[in-house]
Recover the amino acids of this structure.
């Protein structure tokens, strides 16, 4: 892959991450700089540049899917909180987020759904204007 292609992936991914993170995108990248600087680049290029920007799903659909997947995992609370905030940033409503987390209980169990709802409450309380 050429340097130009890598830069395009990074720029595309950074723009998508910026939309989701609403100003906190550099914290995601910088938070890894001292221990795994390449991981931040992988997140931007692959996660957001290659996957998140694919056609077929809207930003809202992608964020709701991400919230569901992270809640179902049951071991990714910081990432879940980040993406609940991201869902709000791209136009999802609190009710949509809550409904997705309720839906998770059918497939991942009540503990996963309850932990997801706890994370949602934390995010909602930190963002009273959303």
């Amino acid at each position: 892959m050429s340097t130009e292609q890598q830069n395009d992936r990074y720029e595309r991914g950074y723009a998508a991450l910026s939309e989701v993170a609403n100003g906190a995108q550099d914290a995601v990248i910088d938070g890894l700089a001292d221990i795994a600087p390449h991981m931040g680049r992988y997140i931007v290029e692959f996660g957001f540049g290659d996957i998140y920007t694919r056609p077929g799903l809207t930003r809202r659909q992608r964020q709701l899917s991400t919230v569901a997947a992270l809640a179902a995992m049951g071991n990714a609370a910081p990432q879940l909180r980040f993406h609940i905030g991201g869902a709000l940033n791209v136009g999802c409503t609190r009710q949509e987020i809550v409904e997705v987390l309720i839906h998770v209980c059918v497939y991942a169990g009540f503990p996963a759904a309850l932990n997801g709802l706890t994370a949602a409450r934390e995010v909602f309380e930190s963002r009273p204007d959303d």
Summary: The chain has two domains: 1-54, 57-130. The mean pLDDT is 94.
